[in-house]
Design brief:
Layout lengths: L4 E3 L4 H14 L5 E5 L9 E5 H15 L6 E4 L6 H13 L2 E4 L15 E6 L1 H11 L6 E6 L6 H7 L5 E8 L4 E7 L6 E3 L4 E5 L2 E6 L4 E12 L4 E7 L4 E3 L2 E3 L1 H8 L7 E8 L3 E9 L6 H10 L8 E5 L12 H7 L5
Parallel strand pairs: 1-5, 4-5, 4-6, 6-7, 7-8, 18-19
Antiparallel strand pairs: 2-3, 8-9, 9-10, 10-14, 11-12, 12-13, 13-14, 15-16, 17-18
Helix pairs in contact: 2-3
């Protein structure tokens, strides 16, 4: 059992999960088992090499210059790669690991501690900001991953003292391979040992140090150079409406300032256009007319949703990402 660990939670199930994972990390196998997030398809189990996980941990730890006296905060579930990697980084650099339950706002329990680095999903960030953003004051570096960060959250984080980084990565890349300081930068920058390229506008990752020769992703990007890129959206989400290709994520960015409840843009099969843009909102009441007028002012005619759907509760993944596919199945929408 890793000795430099402090549990600030009484959640016995979560504590047991952590202990089981640490035992798995130190067993004789040269791999661990993790699950993909399931946000773009069914979650699947994947074997991850411990040598590559160690290298990934080293990339992050060296970037942030971890020391043995540092405190790393774990407040994420550990069935996915994000939570597991926090534990592995603490073990590899022999830092202190501070554990709270993966709740909406885990920071009230750690106000007395200086935290070197803490990882959150956007859902947690939003809840902490709503309650008291001064809770971030003792955190030197904040990593945000698991889902895209909307502009409203970015604007609020610019007023806090912590350095805030949006992460880019996936289970297949052994956690994040690129960071973007959201206070200063518009592009993700990959770690030193990693290179990137694009194929059909999709991101290719070249990372021999992680055991990855070439990984072609479904992420559509704008490539700046072999180290930097801007994320645009997912190729499997692209809407082809009458021959015009539209990216839901770009439309969603335009709508963030207009719609103040959870929503997403998707597509529906249509006999005339092939596919049409639809807007799905987590609400039990129809969209107001003045909001529709605002949508028409900021969206092109091609981007304008042709149908609006309302559902009281979205289906979410365990990391609080909207599960678009399952939510649409719930609405019986053919895409």
């Amino acid at each position: 059992m890793y000795s430099k660990i402090e549990f600030l939670t009484s959640d016995s199930e979560y504590i047991n999960q952590i202990k089981l994972f640490i035992n798995e990390w130190f067993n004789e196998n040269d791999y661990i088992i993790s699950k993909t997030s399931g946000s773009t398809g069914f979650p699947k189990e994947i074997k991850l090499k411990k040598t590559s996980l160690r290298y990934s941990a080293r990339m992050t730890g060296n970037y942030f210059k971890f020391k043995e006296t540092d405190n790393l905060l774990l407040s994420l579930p550990i069935f996915g790669i994000g939570g597991k990697m926090i534990i592995i980084r603490a073990i590899e650099f022999n830092t202190n690991l501070i554990v709270t339950a993966p709740q909406k706002n885990p920071l009230r329990l750690v106000q007395h501690l200086k935290i070197k680095i803490a990882s959150f999903v956007p859902y947690q960030i939003n809840k902490i900001i709503e309650e008291d953003k001064s809770l971030f004051d003792n955190i030197e570096n904040i990593l945000i991953g698991g889902a895209a960060i909307n502009q409203s959250i970015i604007n609020k984080l610019r007023s806090i003292k912590s350095d805030c980084f949006e992460t880019f990565g996936m289970t297949e890349t052994y956690s994040h391979i690129a960071l973007k300081n959201i206070k200063k930068e518009n592009y993700f920058t990959v770690f030193d040992s990693i290179k990137i390229d694009s194929f059909n506008n999709c991101l290719c990752i070249i990372a021999p140090s992680l055991g990855i020769d070439v990984l072609l992703t479904n992420d559509i990007i704008e490539l700046k150079n072999e180290k930097q890129f801007r994320w645009i959206g997912r190729s499997d989400n692209v809407i082809n409406s009458g021959g015009i290709k539209l990216h839901p994520e770009e439309i969603e960015k335009k709508l963030e300032s207009v719609i103040d409840c959870p929503f997403f843009i998707s597509k529906e099969v249509n006999s005339e256009f092939g596919e049409i843009v639809i807007l799905i909102i987590e609400s039990n009441k129809p969209i107001e007319l003045d909001i529709i007028k605002k949508l028409k002012q900021i969206l092109s005619s091609f981007e304008m949703p042709k149908k609006n759907y309302f559902i009281e509760n979205f289906i979410y993944t365990n990391t609080q990402k909207i599960n678009r596919l399952e939510t649409m199945k719930k609405l019986n929408i053919e895409r």
